[in-house]
Write a structure and sequence with these properties.
The complex is a heterodimer of chains A (447) and B (250). By secondary structure, chain A is α/β, with parallel strands linked by helices. Helix content of chain A is 22%, strand content 37%. In chain A, the strands form two sheets. Chain A has a ten-stranded mixed beta sheet, covered by helices on one side. Chain A has a nine-stranded mixed beta sheet with strand order 3-4-6-8-10-12-14-16-18. Chain B has ten helices and twelve strands. Chain B has a six-stranded mixed beta sheet with strand order 6-9-10-3-11-12, with helices on both faces. Chain B has a four-stranded antiparallel beta sheet with strand order 2-1-4-5. A two-stranded antiparallel ribbon of chain B has the order 7-8. Helix content of chain B is 41%, strand content 28%. The chains are: A alpha/beta (447), B alpha/beta (250). At the A-B interface, helix 7 and helix 8 of A face helix 2, strand 7, helix 3 and strand 8 of B.
Chain lengths: 447, 250
């Protein structure tokens, strides 16, 4: 057992009763089992293929504080936070560290929709939660999921019943706010019943210049004929580490799109596992990464085609600058019998300096004989001819480089269907490349 | 305006220019002719500061400034423009964004405020008509999906937007049909003033029927071996370069 692992084992052994006492009761069920899984597995090392490019041991080794007693931070996020996506009228919720903010509005509506802390959910929603909790997020196979399940004390629940739709985008701001180094363990569940429809936007935001370690496990259950459009926007700082595991199961005739945008962070590891369980569904994964300095961003995705007639599209684009490191591993697994699968996977990367590193692994595994699948990956540098052409027109070298990087990343930004976000993202990406996003722009505390 | 003295230059370790001397005064148009590989494009690339070309000896001054000490963008700001033989496609960078940045960078250099968006778009509309460039093309990425002729017209359009004082047209006539050639040449003539000068690199007399040169130079094997007036281009059209080669060797 390494020091990293042992400190979490000791922590749990000493505090498990405190954790349980201050937790939403529905999260206590699988807690001990999840801890046992963690204790027997330990944290993965870089020898494990899936974590080859992210040093989990190192990320978990600092002595972070945790807020097991759920002490509220005396901050009104509605006061201090200015939304970074104007012109977007949203249902706005705050999760401060891993506490759902107590004064979040519109908890439930007459149509049976529920959004908010599982603690405040009506009994039938809690039952739905219990029935699905950890069903896809298997604590026996992933140490981060196991640890999150052992430590998480609250969950943000999105429940949209049959044939209902969210009339506005739900925006959840994950604020990280602490005076000392802090670990947070967030949990999210999204349940869309048959024919339900939702657009969700999660924004990560760090307000203080201390070290943060955030683990997040998101379980998404899309029933037949539902539609989900989900965006995650990371805009933290260099001292933040994020481990996010997302598990999605998709019924028949669904349209699901997941968009991960890493604008700024220290170390990011996003794991996405999608199971296409019903026919005629379409799933889209888009990813956009901008990393510089010594940042590390690792996206690891798996799309499983379990049934025939489904479509999956995946596009990840990275711009890696300075001595940053990017990694992408995208695996498409077409199971026996999943005929007429159509799948396309593309990972395009730009290394802007000689020191920048990108590790790309597009993977296709096909066990059916009537499918149309393709995958591709490119790693390139800035086009010197284009740079010179622009310079000859009077555009200084730095500006020309910025324009080329922006052009490269904008090809994935264009895929974003949520228009105000798309427009805003262009602005933010521009700012990011100009080095003006080194600290967060959204909160008034930083100004 | 431009003074080149004893210019020697190489690319990839191979010496291409072996002592070029050339003086171009305000308002003059010089045609530069010569066989393939004679060093015509090398000379134009050196003038605009292409990083792949190395000057080993000699000097170039532009309006009294040491041109070789300036960055490519500084040369552009000073008023030098190259119409590329093969214009570059830049996917994802819109023509509008590209030109707005270029125009405003030049204005910044000249101590002017950035152009207002409406004024800029108005200027785009006006200048576009000069070379009959389709508005659809202006809404695309730089040169992306442009035909060969459209790319060349786009070069002259950019020239119109940037209002340079010294232009190099590097085989701007190649690949153009007769109508496109006329449009491009007439566009250039409209932009030409008594203060602006140019080097026209071409293999054919037909462009020089539209743009009348004050002087014609023949570049062979890295040196200017003959200089004459517009009649020289016509003689070359009839007789080729062999007689000049013979003259040079004797």
């Amino acid at each position: 057992m390494t020091h990293s692992e042992q400190q979490y084992i000791d922590l749990y052994n000493n505090y498990s009763e405190v954790i349980k006492a201050h937790s939403a009761a529905v999260l206590n069920g699988p807690r001990d089992a999840a801890f046992r899984h963690f204790a027997s597995m330990g944290l993965p090392t870089m020898k494990k293929e899936e974590y080859k490019y992210t040093d989990v041991q190192k990320a978990f080794s600092p002595d972070y504080g945790l807020n097991f007693k759920r002490i509220e931070i005396p901050t009104d996020p509605f006061e201090v936070f200015r939304c970074n996506v104007p012109n977007l009228s949203t249902l706005l919720y705050f999760v401060v560290n891993d506490l759902c903010y107590k004064d979040n509005p519109h908890l439930k509506d007459d149509n049976g929709i529920f959004l908010g802390s599982i603690k405040q959910a009506p009994e039938e929603v809690k039952q739905t939660f219990c029935g699905l909790y950890t069903r896809n997020a298997d604590t026996a196979t992933d140490a981060v999921t196991a640890l999150n399940t052992a430590l998480a004390q609250d969950a943000f629940m999105v429940y949209v019943p049959r044939n209902r739709q969210l009339n506005k985008t739900l925006q959840v701001i994950n604020l990280l706010h602490s005076k000392t180094d802090l670990m947070v363990n967030r949990r999210v569940m999204v349940v869309l019943e048959e024919g339900a429809d939702a657009t969700l936007l999660f924004c990560d935001h760090a307000m203080d210049s201390v070290r943060f370690l955030a683990t997040q496990v998101t379980e998404i259950y899309c029933s037949d004929n539902s539609r989900l459009d989900m965006y995650e926007l990371e805009e933290n700082h260099i001292l933040c580490t994020r481990f996010s595991n997302t598990y999605v199961s998709v019924g028949s005739d669904c349209t699901v799109s997941l968009n991960n945008i890493t604008l700024y962070n220290g170390t990011t590891r996003n794991t996405i596992r999608v199971r296409l369980e019903g026919e005629h569904s379409e799933v889209t994964l888009n990813g956009c990464v901008i990393a510089d300095k010594n940042q590390k961003v690792d996206n690891n995705t798996l799309i499983e085609h379990l049934v025939p007639h489904c479509t999956s599209n995946e596009l990840y684009r990275y711009v890696i600058d300075d001595s940053a490191v990017g990694a992408f591993a995208g695996r498409i697994l077409v199971h026996p019998g999943a005929q007429k699968t159509v799948s396309q996977e593309t990972n395009a990367n730009l290394c802007a300096t000689k020191e920048a590193r990108m590790y790309s692994q597009p993977m296709l595994e096909i066990y059916a004989d009537d499918v149309k699948c393709s995958h591709g990956s490119t790693v390139g540098v800035l086009d010197e001819n284009a740079l010179f052409y622009m310079q000859q027109r009077g555009i200084p070298s730095d500006e020309a480089r910025m324009l080329l990087k922006f052009a490269f990343i904008s090809q994935v930004c264009e895929k974003i269907k949520l228009e105000p976000l798309r427009e805003r993202l262009n602005y933010l990406v521009n700012k990011r490349f100009r080095g003006q996003l080194s600290k967060c722009t959204g909160c008034s505390l930083c100004k | 305006m431009l003074e080149i003295k004893n210019l020697h230059a190489s690319v990839g370790g191979k010496e291409i220019l072996k002592g070029v001397d050339l003086i171009i005064n305000d308002g003059e148009i010089h045609a530069l002719m010569g066989t393939n590989g004679a060093g015509k494009s090398t000379l134009s690339n050196i003038i605009v500061g292409h990083p792949a070309y190395e000057v080993t000896e000699g000097s170039i001054t532009f309006n009294g400034q040491d041109l070789l000490a300036m960055k490519p963008e500084e040369r552009a700001h000073a008023g030098i423009f190259l119409s590329f033989q093969q214009p570059i496609e830049i996917p994802g960078v819109s023509m509008t964004n590209f030109l707005r940045t270029a125009v405003n960078e030049r204005r910044k250099y000249l101590g002017l405020d950035p152009l207002k968006s409406t004024d800029f778009l108005k200027q785009m509309r006006e200048k576009r008509k000069l070379v009959e460039l389709d508005s659809k093309l202006v809404n695309r990425s730089v040169n992306e999906g442009f035909s060969g002729g459209e790319k060349k017209r786009n070069e002259i359009f950019q020239m119109a937007m940037l209002e340079p004082t010294f232009c190099i047209l590097d085989e701007t006539d190649s690949g153009l049909d007769v109508d496109a050639l006329r449009i491009v040449a007439e566009g250039f003539n409209k932009l030409k003033t008594e203060q602006t000068s140019a080097i026209i690199i071409t293999h054919y007399q037909r462009l020089l029927d539209y743009i009348r040169p004050d002087k014609v130079h023949v570049l062979l094997n890295g040196r200017i071996v003959k200089t004459g007036d517009a009649e020289l281009a016509k003689t070359i059209e009839d007789k080729g370069f062999d007689w000049i080669k013979d003259e040079a060797e004797n």
